[in-house]
Structure formats: structure tokens, C-alpha cells
Amino acid sequence: MLLVQLVQSVGDYLHDVFVTQFDGWVVLGFVAQVMFTGRFVVQWIASERAGRSVLPFAFWTFSLGGGTLLLIYAIYRRDPVFIAGQALSTFIYIRNLQFAIRERRANRATT
């Protein structure tokens, strides 16, 4: 009986989280999370090809895109921990993109 109640409670919770609360903001959150996760896939593929750890330009692009969307989502959800983390991360992604762009320009100038 206790196991049945537990399973029903978990089912009710999952239904509430993934069905009842489903709206455009949840879609945005999932798109942001897919972009954010995509950066690791890009980094992994680039590293496998190079045979060493590599952070390609696309890694920082996905980081900025996913991180910015997650920040918007966190602001909408009013989550102070998530907002603080994503706000700082977004600044770091912008700075790393600046470094990557500067490096690309320097490489083009020397070739």
C-alpha cells in the first residue's frame, strides 16, 4: 500500500512538473538547456579530433547563447541563485568570445 502511494505521489509530481506547468517558458528553458549541453558535445568532438583538450569558438558561442537564455529563464522564474550564477557566467562567455575573436583576427593577419 505504501509503495502504491509513493508511485502515485511521484506520478502526480511528474505530471505537475512536466504537463501542468508546461508553457512557453518551459520550452525556452529546454531550448536553453539543449544549447548549453551542446557546447560540451562540440568541445568533446573538437578534442577527439585534435587528440587534446580544445575549446573551439562554437563552444563559447553555445555557452553565450545557452547561458543568456538560461539567465532570461531564471529571471522569469525569480530564482536568485540561478540568476547570480548565469549572470556571472554570461560575462565570462562574452569575455572569452572577445579573446577568441581577437585571436582569430591575429591569426588571419599573420597568414
Summarize this, please?
This protein is mostly helical and 111 residues long. It has helices at residues 2-20, 24-50, 57-77, 80-110.
Q: Can you walk me through this structure?
A:
By secondary structure, the protein is mostly helical. The protein has one domain. The protein is built from four helices and no strands. The chain has helices at 2-20, 24-50, 57-77, 80-110. Helix 2 packs antiparallel against helix 3. The radius of gyration is 19 Å and the shape is elongated.
List key phrases describing it.
4 helices; UCP028440_lipidA_biosyn; Putative membrane protein; lipid-A-disaccharide synthase activity; membrane; Lipid_A_biosynth_N
Number of domains: 1
- Mean pLDDT, to the nearest integer, reads 90
Count of helix runs: 4
Total E-strand runs: 0
Structural class: mainly alpha
Query: Which strand-content bin applies to the residues?
Result: under 5%
C-alpha end-to-end distance: 73 Å
**How much helix, percentage-wise, in residues?**
over 70%
What is the H-and-E element order? HHHH
List unreliable stretches of 5+ residues.
Answer: none
Shape: elongated
Secondary structure blueprint with pairings:
Blueprint (H helix, E strand, L loop, with lengths): L1 H19 L3 H27 L6 H21 L2 H31 L1
Helix pairs in contact: 2-3, 3-4
GO molecular function: lipid-A-disaccharide synthase activity
GO biological process, one term: lipid A biosynthetic process
InterPro entries: Lipid_A_biosynth_N, UCP028440_lipidA_biosyn
